[in-house]
Design goal:
28-stranded antiparallel β-sheet, 3 helices, mainly beta, 4-stranded mixed β-sheet, 34 strands, 4% helix
Length: 669
């Protein structure tokens, strides 16, 4: 923890040295709402609303969480005209990427809540307000990625969007070429078996991109004296990857996955005087097909799985704004989720039974909420309320389960000085069960077979958060945040049966999250158009290992992420530069008979150049992983449970990752 405190002291010392204690006018407005007009971004070479949001001082963008079921629980922290799009597959970041900066009137950052705004369960949200002018745009985007092994990854999109009167519309066709990670490369594997000499093999990782196609369409218009919006998303992606090792322990681990999804959503909002009614309907369908194999001398294993999931959501909220200082909001949400899955595991030509190989699961879930937002005084705000969640889960082969949780929330905000705000939050958060954990899965090159678990419970977290936010120098901000989580039914690995483990619940755990975000404009230091943005997220979790009983880190949790961005806008060149540096990190996973330790070091370095010679023409060149990092995976394998069984092997793989270059041309007609 000494690193965290040293980092905090360094940030505070920097703030004092550069005069942070002397606030200047920051954007427009004080207290809960800060307003950034379009002119605020005039000196920055930007293209889309997403670019604008990432430049908001002290604001950390949170995207839609597609892993969570339900609508309210998956929300990000950006609204468009005060409304969240009725979509999950089409995440908020993609929606923002399709809105040009010419369409933006202003962006409001609401801190701690404001009457009339649905905060989506967040402490801070950005509300993008669009212009009401009639215009139509045709936007063509071409991109190509040059990978370290020389192959190319072409992609692009063509989009038509516009507004006529009160009607707005958008249609986008996309060739997807999405990067999953930068770990592809070549290296070496050291394989150690107790009592034998260590052997050395060449190691290779291939397949870093996900390719496919997508169609996105949306329409907004007045209906029945209210605002109606509908959207449609159709998407298909394929991801192929492979890990293989040279002799003397030659082995090949090919894998591929194919995902098809379809989603249709609609929302309708209408004001009845001081009362606003909001209705949301959403239907989502998805099919996941996965193949994974292990091919080695004398051994051949194949795992296949197919899962069909569906999600149907109806949601209604009523907001009553009795005055400029008080809002009361109530709502109800109903959802039906289902999973039909099948999987097979064949080892050396023999079928092997796997727990929860062919699950059939459905969930009926409802949630009722009541929330009040009250500005007690110009400098004080209070948000208090609760949600009650109830659900019934039916899984073939096990008794039906009824679950219910009360989720209270309290948020107090105090703005004692211009530009400054202190927030304190206490809330009970209940996780959403990931249906993919109900079905067996495999990763032969990593953790092997994982059994499904039909008896999972969602984790519950009491979160206690404190934030200190301060804005200075017009474009500067400092945010210090600490969150304590007391966790019940933590999702981790537990014994399932048949000699396998899988996702399960551990009774108790704790987690401490330290977060520092800073935007330091460099104009006053003589570097016009420059901004320094250091960021630190440190997670210090603790849980009793279900095998050994010893206290350890929570599986799959990255210990820290220290990132420094250096932004430089150069108006005379119609350009902007973004240098990104990320620190090393470690992410261990603890299983019953195995420990996997993933490490990245020493640094991740990226550089982006954005050249905009005309308002309607933009060229981007992004260099990823300029200083190739080392991607290490250390795997300790045991003959059985780690507390009772001997170590059978240690696999130490060091991969030298490869750089890549992205070229993108965007033209607006």
């Amino acid at each position: 923890m000494s690193f965290v405190f040293r980092y905090l002291l360094a940030v505070l010392a920097t703030a004092i040295v550069f005069g942070l204690g002397s606030p200047a006018a920051h954007a427009e407005g004080e207290g809960a709402v800060l307003t950034y007009p379009a002119s605020y971004f005039a000196t920055m070479e930007l293209n889309t609303v997403r670019d604008m949001v990432t430049r908001l001082p002290g604001f950390v963008f949170i995207d839609t969480d597609t892993t969570k079921r339900g609508f309210a629980s998956s929300a990000g922290n950006v609204l468009v005209d005060g409304v969240r799009p009725a979509s999950k597959t089409d995440v908020v970041s993609a929606v923002l990427d399709r809105i040009a900066i010419s369409q933006v009137d202003r962006i409001e950052v609401i801190r701690g809540g404001a009457p009339g705004i649905d905060m989506q369960g967040q402490t801070v949200v950005a509300n993008v307000i669009l212009k009401r002018t009639d215009e139509n745009h045709l936007i063509a985007t071409l991109l190509n990625t040059v990978y370290g092994d020389g192959h190319l990854g072409p992609g692009g999109s063509i989009e038509f969007n516009g507004r006529t009167g009160d009607d707005s519309y958008d249609l986008t066709l996309t060739r997807i070429n999405r990067i999953n990670d930068d770990s592809a490369g070549n290296g070496v594997r050291f394989l150690t078996v107790p009592g034998q000499a260590t052997t050395t093999d060449g190691a290779h990782r291939r397949g870093a991109e996900q390719v496919g196609y997508a169609v996105n369409a949306s329409l907004s218009r007045p209906v029945l004296q209210g605002a109606f919006a509908a959207n449609l998303t159709l998407q298909q992606t394929i991801y192929n990857s492979a890990v293989f090792y040279d002799a003397p322990n030659a082995a090949d681990f090919p894998a591929n996955s194919k995902v098809r999804s379809a989603e249709m959503g609609a929302n309708w909002d209408r004001n009845f005087g001081a009362v606003k009614l909001s209705l949301v309907a959403l239907q989502r369908l998805e099919r996941d097909q996965n193949f994974n194999a292990s091919i080695a001398s004398g051994s051949n294993q194949v795992f296949n799985s197919v899962s069909d999931t569906a999600e149907s959501i109806l949601r209604g909220t009523v907001r009553y704004v009795s005055s400029q200082t008080l809002m009361i909001q109530g709502g109800i949400e109903g959802a039906y989720n289902s999973l039909n899955g099948s999987s097979s595991f064949i080892s050396n030509g023999v079928a092997v039974a796997v727990p929860a190989a062919n699950p059939k699961v459905n969930e009926k879930r409802g949630e009722a909420s009541l929330l009040a937002s009250w500005h007690l005084a110009p400098d004080w705000a209070l948000e208090a309320g609760a949600r009650f969640e109830f659900s019934t889960i039916v899984a073939q082969g096990v008794p039906a389960r009824d679950l219910n949780f009360l989720k209270p929330r309290l948020l107090i905000s105090w703005s004692p000085i211009p530009g400054g705000q202190i927030r304190v939050r206490a809330e009970r958060v209940v996780g959403q069960l990931d249906f993919t954990n109900f079905i067996a899965s495999s990763n032969f090159s990593g953790a092997g077979i994982s059994a499904g678990n039909l008896l999972l419970r969602p984790d519950q977290r009491w979160q206690f958060e404190g934030d200190l936010e301060y804005h200075f120098w017009d474009k500067g901000a400092l945010v210090l945040s600490y969150t304590r989580e007391n966790i019940t039914d933590l999702l981790d690995y537990i014994p399932i049966g048949g000699g396998l483990d899988g996702p399960g619940n551990i009774p108790k755990a704790t987690n401490n999250i330290y977060n520092v975000e800073m935007s330091l404009p460099l104009d006053r230091l003589g570097i016009e158009g420059g901004t320094l943005k250091p960021s630190l997220v440190w997670k210090d979790g603790a849980v009793a290992d279900p095998v050994t009983g010893a206290t350890r880190q929570i599986s799959g949790t990255q210990d820290k992420l220290l990132q420094v961005d250096v932004l430089q806008d150069i108006q005379s060149w119609d350009s902007s530069l973004d240098l990104t540096i990320q620190s090393a990190f470690q992410r261990p996973t603890f299983r019953i008979a195995q420990v996997n330790d993933l490490r990245l070091h020493p640094l991740y370095v990226g550089l982006a150049w954005d050249y905009k010679p005309k308002p309607d023409l933009d060229l981007q060149i992004k260099f990823f992983n300029i200083v190739p990092y080392q991607f290490d995976q250390i795997q300790y394998n045991y003959a059985g449970p780690r507390n009772l069984s001997p170590l059978t092997s240690i696999q130490d793989v060091h991969t030298h990752s490869e750089p890549r270059i992205l070229l993108q041309l965007r033209k607006t007609f």
